[in-house]
Amino acid sequence: MSDIFDELQWRGLVAQTTDETALRKALADGPLTLYVGFDPTAPSLHFGNLVQLVLARRLQQAGHRVLCLVGGSTGLIGDPKPDSERVLRTKEQVADAVAHIRAQAESFLSFDGDNPATMVNNLDWTQGISALDFLRDYGKHFRVNAMVKKDAVAARLNSDQGISYTEFSYQILQALDYLHLFREFGCTLQTGAVDQWGNILAGVDLIRSADGGHAHVLTTPLLTDASGRKYGKSEGNAIWLDPEMTSPYAFYQYWINIDDSEVIKLLKVFTDLEYEAIAELEQQVTDAPFRREAQRTLAAEVTTLVHGAEATRAAQDASAALFGKGDVHVLDAATLKDATGELPGGAVAAGDTIVDALVAVGVADSRNAARRLIKDGGVSVNNIKVTDPEQTLSDADFLHGQTALVKRGRKHLAAARRRRG
Description:
The chain is an alpha/beta fold. The protein has helices at 4-10, 20-29, 47-61, 74-77, 91-106, 123-126, 131-138, 144-147, 151-157, 165-168, 170-185, 197-211, 248-256, 260-270, 275-287, 293-307, 309-323, 333-340, 354-360, 367-375; strands at 16-17, 33-38, 65-70, 118-121, 187-193, 216-220, 233-234, 237-238, 345-348, 379-381, 384-385, 403-408, 412-418. The chain folds into 3 domains: 4-220, HUPs (Rossmann fold, 3-Layer(aba) Sandwich), CATH 3.40.50.620; 233-327, Tyrosyl-Transfer RNA Synthetase; 345-418, Roll (Structural Genomics Hypothetical 15.5 Kd Protein In mrcA-pckA Intergenic Region, Chain A), CATH 3.10.290.
């Protein structure tokens, strides 16, 4: 596709624009300067932020200039939530989060070469503004009757809790960012999720009101599964980009488990695969869904993007070892811990029989049931079939001295964790 806007539409990355015709022309005439912003309201970027990062990455690859903003000042305030007031974080907490998120964002964009991205922090241009200057120079351009119509603000105003002036003023601060970047860098496009439409539009209005300038907005859809639930949640837990918060193995498994009906949509959004490759994977979903080739491709591509090729190989090895016939001994200690952390299991010791281990980890209800399973050939330890009910666990069976993998059939897997003392 020669038109970047057409490609973004095909990939499902366009929800709304202020003026599609004008934005198409600006992108075609380019290069234009755009910005995407991240507030440090959490200790790490997450699934939703990844959508914005891949969008900015595509636009940079198409030749446009990217400003990546980390909200050192807006993070001190917090974008209003529709249901409750945010708990303010200390300046030190926000500064730490800014540094961490900045380092994460830098890995997705190119900051050297002929078209380098630029990292900016809005604390640099807001911390010196006095309260009087803020009200006179920026507040005068906003009308309260328009501000209260924003969805989150309206929801809070209609609640018993109400909304503080601190959070009410957030949209002015974000609009100020767009005005500053318009003036300083000639930035004429801001991108964000569709639920940020109101805040971003406030920046467009401020540019027009304060400077008589013209700017664009491009928002991305909120990605939801077939049931309407937002992607990026796994049993109530966010999918973080920080490997300490969501391990590369858990990250990889999240993408492997995407439903057939949704995998092509996510391949378009998150990978660089072209039309022909995705069409082929789509055909495989129809012809041989049991192979889950599209999910494997999605998991490998996105895990490599976020965590690197080495972490992806480790996750693939762990997946093959746990759910296939791979060699469990290739797993490093950290990956083994991540991969077995949420498995059912129990405590056992070297010298315990396999029969006792099956009962301890919950694979069998009783010793007699465990013996029958072994006799029927349905039990393995570390992917090696067990044939003798009197066999015991040896020191070598505990991978990295920690865990032996006990399997019944192909699907029932448990962790026999070594008991100390």
